[in-house]
Design a protein that fits this description.
about 130 residues; mainly beta; seven-stranded mixed β-sheet; four-stranded antiparallel β-sheet; about 0% helix; about 50% strand; globular
Length: about 130
């Protein structure tokens, strides 16, 4: 049973920074693509960023490029999302997700349905 536990959310002023962490259980973490998604009230869950199993390649949705950085530490089974220059429109519940079907793979997906495991989410609120 895979468990993903996010932490690091909170309330921050516009222009501020937060770092989210996601700790994963299980041996599949180091070989799986990991992603971050977010969901604002009344909106669909959307892709934010992903990193392949090695951490050597990362992907971002256009609206966060240059402000967010995804990284992973396979020794700690943890994936991070460093968020800088936060904007009120970044307000959402942030979820980490693991795609165990893309193992040792240099590919990623932006579709939530392609990810096999999800955390419970952590709230990020950016005030103006």
């Amino acid at each position: 049973q895979v468990q993903l536990v996010e932490s690091g959310g909170g309330l921050v002023q516009a222009g501020g920074s937060l770092t989210l962490s996601c700790a994963a259980s299980g041996r599949a973490f180091s070989i799986s693509t990991m992603g971050w998604f977010r969901q604002a009230p009344g909106k669909e869950r959307e892709f934010v960023a992903a990193t392949i199993y090695s951490g050597g390649t990362t992907y971002y949705t256009e609206s966060v490029k240059g402000r967010f950085t995804i990284s992973r530490d396979n020794a700690k089974n943890t994936v991070y999302l460093q968020m800088n220059s936060l904007k009120p429109e970044d307000t959402a519940v942030y979820y980490c997700a693991q795609d165990r079907r893309r193992y040792y793979n240099n590919d990623y997906s932006v579709r939530p349905s392609d990810y096999t495991d999800w955390g419970q989410g952590t709230q990020v609120t950016v005030s103006s």
